[in-house]
Fold this sequence. Notes:
19% of the residues lie in helices and 15% in strands. By secondary structure, the protein is an alpha/beta fold. It has one domain. The chain has helices spanning 11-20, 132-135, 139-148, 163-172; strands at residues 26-28, 34-36, 40-41, 54-57, 61-62, 77-78, 82-83, 98-99, 103-104, 118-119, 123-124. The radius of gyration is 17 Å and the shape is elongated. The protein is built from four helices and eleven strands, in the order αβββββββββββααα.
Amino acid sequence: MIKLFEQFNNEQEIREICEKYNIKNYTINPDGSIDVNGDVYISGYRLSKLPLMFDNVSGDFSCGNNILTTLEGSPKWVGGDFDCHRNNFTSLNGCPIIIDGNLYIEYNQISLIDISIKVKGNIVFTGCNFDYRIESLSQDKLRILFEHGVDYNIFDKDGSINNSRLKRMFSDFNI
């Protein structure tokens, strides 16, 4: 049987990594991922990938100012803010599915929304490569776009927006 990425870390390795990055109040899940009751701050370590597989983080999760090329390993749910600004990723694949706070993705080479993300707070994306029309959207429209844009196939592969699909999506949500 092939081991999944997250199964390569044994419990002792996970504990050592948590200690190294000052991650407290965590539970190791059977699949090797961790739940954290509180915040995770792993910003500014020049990480090219996340050191652990996270499942749920009840507080803020900050992995900004690294050199991440992917968000794989990010929590599925974040109870606070998710901050991944100033990295090197081009896709939101791996981003949490639910973010109860704000989403900070500034200064990454993202040009399209390729997964569905439910963000309850604000979405901050200065310095990304999104189509200019996204910059003028209200936070309400941005939240709908991030959560449902994939379902409506809003983005073409080159990052351009299909205007008629965008209008239909907003119309369907009475916005």
